[in-house]
Specification:
There is one protein chain. The protein has about 500 residues and is of the alpha/beta class. About 30% of the residues lie in helices and about 20% in strands. The chain has helices at about 30-40, 65-70, 110-120, 125-140, 150-165, 200-205, 260-270, 325-330, 335-345, 375-395, 415-420, 480-500, and strands spanning about 5, 15-25, 45-50, 80, 85, 170, 210-215, 215-225, 230-240, 245-255, 285-295, 310, 315-320, 350-355, 365, 370-375, 400-405, 465. A hairpin with a 4-residue loop joins strand 9 (about 230-240) and strand 10 (about 245-255). The longest helix is centred in the last third of the chain and has 20 residues, at about 375-395.
Length: about 500
């Protein structure tokens, strides 16, 4: 193992890399980086394998086409299918989804932690320990609230409407202390103002001298002896061409799978390492949206991509502002032809916000090649209630009209149109939906009949294989998950180190 950052350029073409460490971590996102940090700080040597590239901020290009090709799982085409089609975004590269998210930071809601402890036996998530984890995370990734001049109009206009209605709203805490409001978070932060995990937790791990990061390496096979993994194998990947070039083999005493809620269960299934509920219980926080038109210019693609939210936890959802590049707005408009082109000509006057649902009655599953998600009736009604609330906020802020992200719903011209035109019996397939928070497919618990990993993160039936990512969440989280994933990585890393 060579400490530091390694990539394709350093690998011998056609040869097999032979690597060895105390622990092999598979995946370089929020879970992988934080668990590697915890293990290295406990004195263990770590090899971290990641399919995507090592990136520097100046390498990012502010276009969706470049980002989809280089930074997104499945080049941005990943989607669930069921009673509707939902694009399901995920990151690819050292840094994982933190490379492309909006840096939003929520501590795990205490009712969720209480449920995980009380109903699933996840006793390690006690309030004192998790509080200490959150405090450390806040410091490590530079969590702050960006000032209003960086938020700009797309966020400020929504706050204005929420305040007018007396709604409980706040600026969102973000791991972007140096944000300048360029609006390109989801294509990779080109200034380094966002502290992604490759530049925070993983850098702390690298600073110990006990961690080697191997990018451009796709892990796809395992060697086992009894109930233990003794090595993982795979191919080195040539960047750009995405074709195999060489191979590698990593030996370790312990292995930690951090491939996310899609990648981790698929790896377990492909290698026969888990059975039963692996891949089940997919949760994604489905989202819907609305656009509000204003007389003044908003220029929604400028400013913090997601800066303000309204807490509607009691109703089962959050409202959050969002922004996209203009080409992505065009794809989201729920109608076409000349009407859509008219919106695009006037796009500088539109603001955008969405509703994030805490999935309750939806049912999802990750298969070996398919992603299945059936939007439940309760979740659908909550999405529609959220869209109606977003419309009310925009009209309260002075919008002249609102476009609801629901196919077949005419443009709303007044508050009176909201309840009349956005009705609950809309089929799920008519909602303009999106998701980027897959969870729960290798759920954690004390009962092997109801879970895939035990409360320490170890796969049931395996002696040295762990999972540390959002796939182990016992239930839907209800808020943006990156902080919870980091806390989970620190927790499972602690447990592995304690086991010796």
């Amino acid at each position: 193992m060579i400490p530091g950052r390694n990539g394709f350029e350093r690998y011998p073409v056609g040869a097999t890399l032979e690597l060895e460490a105390d622990v092999c971590v598979i995946g370089g996102g929020a879970g992988g980086a934080s668990v590697a940090c915890a293990l290295a700080e406990a004195g263990m040597t770590v090899v971290l394998m990641e399919e995507g590239r090592n990136w520097k901020p100046q390498q990012f290009q502010p276009t969706a086409s470049w980002a989809f090709k280089h930074l997104y799982a499945g080049r941005g085409t990943r989607a669930t299918r069921g009673n509707c089609v939902i694009p399901l975004a995920g990151g690819r590269g050292v840094g994982g989804s933190t490379l492309i998210n909006s840096a939003i930071c929520f501590r795990t809601p205490e009712p969720v932690l209480a449920d995980w402890r009380g109903n699933h036996g996840c006793v390690h998530f006690d309030s004192a320990w998790m509080g200490a984890c959150f405090d450390r995370i806040w410091q490590t990734i530079g969590v702050t609230v960006n000032p209003p001049e960086v938020q700009r109009e797309n966020n400020r206009i929504f706050k204005q409407g929420a305040d007018a209605l007396g709604l409980k709203g706040e600026w969102m805490a973000r791991s972007a202390p140096g944000c300048g409001g360029c609006g390109t978070c989801n294509q990779g932060c080109p200034t380094g103002g966002k502290l992604t995990v490759d530049r925070s937790f993983l850098q702390l791990a690298l600073d110990t001298g006990r961690v080697g990061v191997y990018a451009d390496c796709r892990v796809d096979g395992v060697e086992t002896r009894g109930d233990r993994v003794v090595a993982v194998t795979g191919r080195t990947i040539e960047p750009g061409a995405y074709t195999p070039s060489g191979s590698f083999r990593v030996r370790a005493d312990r292995f930690v799978l951090c491939g996310g809620a899609v990648g981790s269960p698929r790896f377990l299934m492909a290698n026969g390492l888990a059975a039963g509920l692996v891949g089940e219980h997919l949760r994604i926080h489905p989202t819907a949206y609305a656009l509000g038109r204003f007389e003044q210019e908003i220029v929604p693609w400028h400013g913090v991509t997601q800066g303000f939210y309204v807490d509607r936890w009691e109703q089962g959802f959050l409202m959050q502002t969002f922004s996209m590049p203009p080409d992505q707005y065009y794809l989201s408009i729920p109608f076409g032809g000349d009407d859509a082109l008219a919106v695009m000509r006037d796009l500088r006057h539109y603001a955008s916000a969405g509703v994030v649902v805490h999935d309750e009655d939806s049912v999802g599953r990750v298969g070996s090649s398919e992603l299945v998600y059936w939007l439940g009736e309760l979740d659908k009604r909550r999405l529609l209630a959220g869209v109606r609330d977003v419309a009310r906020v925009y009209f309260a802020a002075g919008a002249t009209e609102v476009i609801a992200g629901v196919h077949g719903v005419p443009v709303l011209r007044s508050v009176a149109d909201i309840d009349r035109l956005i009705v609950d019996d809309v089929p799920a397939v008519e909602l303009g939906l999106y998701a980027s928070h897959p969870m729960g497919t290798c759920r954690m618990g004390a009962d092997p009949e109801r879970s895939v990993v035990d409360p320490q993160g170890k796969v049931w039936g395996m002696g040295n294989l762990y999972v540390a990512d959002a796939s182990v969440f016992p239930s839907s989280l209800g808020v943006n998950p990156q902080v919870t994933v980091m806390a989970l990585g620190l927790t499972i890393g602690r447990e592995i180190a304690r086991a010796g």
